[in-house]
From TrEMBL:
Pfam families: Adenine_glyco. GO terms for molecular function: DNA-3-methyladenine glycosylase activity; metal ion binding. It comes from Vibrio superstes NBRC 103154. The keyword Lipoprotein does not apply. The lineage of its organism: Bacteria, Pseudomonadati, Pseudomonadota, Gammaproteobacteria, Vibrionales. Zn(2+) binds at C4, H18, H175, C179. This is DNA-3-methyladenine glycosylase.
């Protein structure tokens, strides 16, 4: 079975993530919030580093509940700085708390984060990979989304990070043309 070339098939947990999650269209706000935290934590690191710590993030960030995370205070930040199950980067931890508050604001203004984010692709996943190799880190869409979120006050969510978020949550389909998951749509 052929899978995306970037996937290290010697890592069963990575294969499972690729086959069952990556690129599957998401419509659950809690999952969107999870990926915003995880993708922003990844900045400067490999996705596999974060994937191995996913359970630690789940525990540290209240099962990815934005309402709870939005209430984290400086004592909680200090506690998280001691938590070896996550990346102990103060700026990333503080960004997650900041972003939780803004995530809730978007939910309030748009009815859901799902409605907000899917409006960027007219409620249809984009099929960006129309040719073989596709070593793209950003697109016009991720640039626009990064600019819009920055204007709202989001942190650690630049264009590259947001493009990875769009790929992971299925707003864009970037599976290799011959990947077994290419035509899957959730």
């Amino acid at each position: 079975m052929k899978r995306c070339n970037w996937l290290d098939v010697s890592k069963p947990d990575y294969v499972e993530y690729h086959d069952k999650e990556w690129g599957v269209p998401v419509h659950d706000d809690k999952v969107f919030f999870e990926f915003l935290i995880l993708e922003s934590a990844q900045a400067g690191l490999s996705w596999y580093t974060i994937l191995k710590r996913r359970e630690g993030y789940r525990n540290a960030f209240a099962n990815f509940d934005p309402v709870v995370v939005s209430t984290f205070d400086s004592d909680k930040v200090e506690e998280l700085m001691q938590d070896a199950s996550i990346i102990r980067n103060r700026a990333k931890i503080e960004a997650a708390i900041n972003n939780a508050k803004l995530f809730l604001q978007i939910q309030s203004e748009h009815g859901s984060f799902d409605s907000f984010i899917w409006s960027y692709v007219d409620n249809n996943p984009l099929d960006n990979r129309v040719k073989g190799d596709f070593p793209v880190a950003t697109t016009e869409l991720s640039d626009r989304l990064a600019k819009d979120l920055k204007k709202l006050g989001f942190k650690f969510l630049g264009s590259t990070t947001l493009y990875a978020f769009l790929q992971a949550t299925g707003l864009v389909n970037d599976h290799d043309l011959d990947c077994i998951c290419r035509t899957r749509r959730g």
